[in-house]
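Standup, Tuesday
Yesterday: got the pipeline producing structure tokens again.
Today: sanity-check two examples.
Blockers: none.

Example 1:
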Amino acid sequence: MFDQIILPNGLRVVGEKLTHVRSCTVGVWVKVGSRNEELSENGLSHFIEHMVFKGTKTRTARDIAEEMDMVGGQLNAFTGKECTCYYAKVIDEDLRLAVDILADLALRPTFDEKELNKERGVILEEIAMVEDTPEDLVHEMLASAQFEGSLSRPILGPGSSIRAYTRDDILAYWRKHYVAQNMVLSIAGNYDWNAFVELAQQYFDVFPNEQGQESSEQEQRYIHQRVFKKKDTEQLHICLGFPGIGADTDDTYPLAVFNNAIGGGMSSRLFQRIREELGMAYSVYTYSSSYRNAGVFNVYAGTTPDHGEVVLREIQEQLRLFLKNPISEKEFASAKAQLRGGFVLGLESSSGRMQSVGRGMLLHGRMRTPEEVLAKIDAVTPERVMDVARRILSAEPSAAFVGSNAEACVKLVESAPAAGI
């Protein structure tokens, strides 16, 4: 069962009790990510995530690190397309400190000018690292080839913008989005609910940005571009992308089964054919990403430039064969068991449960019990899997390639049959 309450200031507080652990994981969720950014704001959500750790009105960056280390806790954050999360994992007796520090980070950062310029350099190095990591770069390029809108843009932002942002830019963006109605405080683990609510009321009592607003989502339009970048690398990196399933539909469950069967594991068709039978790729996999009212289904393979066109043809052929030779009883049972097992194993982590309840409330206004999710998985049938597969693979694919021989692969995709790739 879940605990939940809305504080008088509008902050939603949610929790899931786990009696078998001694830990607590607490997260502050903010409904702001790269999807919520205007073009002129790209990268600001992630920039702020970095900057709040550089000092608050009551703590220096060193204080933040030392206080958490003194109790053996873990403190971290991440920025995604649709949200930002700051979280801490501690043993249950140190819960007060975790809430105190998280409130400090979210509500009282100083955005010191000197620290801002130092952190600007760190983020530019992070951007350069992506550019120098072709497997990461090809996924960024694929996003730009799949969408027209903010989902096409990198979470880190372009280097030119990061160099130009001022303290006023960062402060204005933080004031606009870091408001009570835009946040969720979530907890999972061993806690006393009434005591936790008291902590929430104490440390999240005053929000400095009362004039802010709930973050809006920009409309996204699917496009089907093919992009490439020539790089003198040992591998050619291949990505194909299709319109997927939005997060607000139960079709995400048959999609997950389809993903496992075609490329989500070692027994999948793509892995068995391209790696095991042909020996032409060390890494080949599929994955789906679901957002509010949008989603993608993508295929990745890393191979030698000499094998690039062969591997690409094999990917295309295996996708066609999946529609021609529907998922077998054995494949369906295995793919469904992978989905079920992965979910159940994730229940054992207070961090995983905190993310589930926090993200669910922030983005969808609801939380699903483990029993509800398992029932959704159990309700998946082979017919539903094939229906989702047909819808996805009937679309014209987007594509991105990084490495030598990339241009030849673009031409190969463009010459493929329109139906089902």
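Example 2:
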Amino acid sequence: MISSQPPVQAKPNSLNQYDKDTQKKIAIGVIAIALLGVLLPLFIFFYPEYQRDQLIKNGLPAGGEIVSIKPTGNTYNDQPQASIVVKVTLENGETFEAETKMIINAIYAPQFQPGKRVKVRYDANDRTNIAIEETESGQR
């Protein structure tokens, strides 16, 4: 008796279901996603410190007084990050307030209290961009 059903075709092997060009594109995509997953968090974590270091190297010096300090809720290596508002005083007597975030070792927290004097560096093009260089006792 002759069967009227079409012959059963074997399913293609999942590794060979794409041509070589498509396999290369998939591999590149997977590698790109993996790299992005590793590099993006590193960039987010280290870039603010890089910016701070660049501002300390290239920024204009000024004196300042801490107006307020509050924790951001973030910790890095068990050291809290704080948001600090500083009243910056330029050499010509002009003042402005700016906010910066920095990681403060708990041992030095008493030196970062309202009323304490600090040395700051600021961006001449964007005065809201400041970095605390050191406290009055020389701590960074």
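Quick observation on example 2: The domain at 50-135 is CATH 2.40.50.140 (OB fold (Dihydrolipoamide Acetyltransferase, E2P)). The mean pLDDT is 85.
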